[in-house]
Each structure stands twice: as structure tokens, then as C-alpha cells.
Design goal:
It contains four helices and five strands; from the N terminus they run βααββααββ.
């Protein structure tokens, strides 16, 4: 299993709206891809910013390619991301999942 990690930030005042937006865009799109297992969204409000870490779990790099295409390290953005994001990683990081609790 492969974990795909992305980080970004919004204004703290946009934090809840951004989670709703992700639910209508990326999260729902992940679920449509064969080989997607789970997505975990982490959020930390720090001052006037909300920091996000999105961790999606996939069966394989082939499953990730079905989502993003050949450039598996590029981040995927949606039409209103510029409205919300004040900081974003343009690339993602992949990890091999070596342990998970049942």
C-alpha cells in the first residue's frame, strides 16, 4: 500500500468551507478510482491560518496513476483552489505503508 501526502494552508476563516469544498472535489474523485483505499484529512488552526495535510491510501502506484496520470508526484488542483489556498505544495510525497493498526 502507498500513502500519498499533500500539504496546504487556508485562512483560518476559510477552514470549514475548504473541507466542504474538498468533499465536493478531490475526496469524491479519489473514491471513484479503483485502488483508492482511504483518505484522511488533518487540519491544524495556527493563528490566522489553517494548515492541512491530506493523506490518501492506495493499493499501488498504478492506482495513483489512474488518478493523476504519469506524473505521480504532481499535486492535483481544482477550479476554486486559488480562492481558498494561501499556501500549497505543488508536489506530493509518497510513502510505503509498512504498518497499520487493524
Amino acid at each position: 500500500m502507498i500513502a500519498r501526502q499533500w500539504k496546504g494552508a487556508t485562512r483560518a476563516s476559510d477552514a470549514d468551507a475548504y473541507v466542504d469544498y474538498l468533499g465536493r472535489t478531490g475526496f469524491i474523485e479519489y473514491e471513484r478510482i479503483a485502488g483508492h483505499r482511504r483518505t484522511i484529512a488533518l487540519r491544524r488552526i495556527h493563528g490566522d491560518r489553517a494548515e492541512f495535510v491530506i493523506l490518501s491510501l492506495w493499493d499501488s502506484m498504478d492506482a495513483i496513476r489512474r488518478f493523476v496520470g504519469d506524473d505521480v508526484d504532481r499535486a492535483v488542483f481544482y477550479s476554486e483552489d486559488d480562492r481558498y489556498l494561501v499556501e500549497r505544495d505543488e508536489h506530493v510525497t509518497h510513502f510505503d505503508v509498512v504498518y497499520q493498526c487493524p
